[in-house]
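ok trying this again, last paste got cut off
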Amino acid sequence: MNLNEIQKNLDKSLYVFEQGLNIAGYIPLVSTFSGSLRISYGKVEVIASIVAAALTAFVALCNYHDAEARQRGLGKALEIVTTYSLHGIANIFRGVIESVPFLSLFTCLPYDLLRSRFSYHYERSSSHLFMNSPV
């Protein structure tokens, strides 16, 4: 399994997990607990993105013999930290909103129904797989 396949599987798993949190977030009082979970999850996502990007950059910098591969590796590190840390920050922000009972019904539900969410790379490249997924 190569890095792109691992990232696709990770993106799909994170998407499914977040969709479950979204549904829980619509239910008053349950949303308080799911919002707290989402905040913690967002923090982990930010930290994990920094660690994964640092490791990817380190491996790329150790590639002395192939400048092109080194550049691709550094680009991948930038993509990882940007994508997943922004998702983590968005999850923290949404978790704060969901922690307030009934607030997510008026903010998050309409946002999700518009299907304008910040998507993972895998969703953008495979949008047909997620078109019929529940919000």
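PB: full thing came through this time. The chain has seven helices and no strands.
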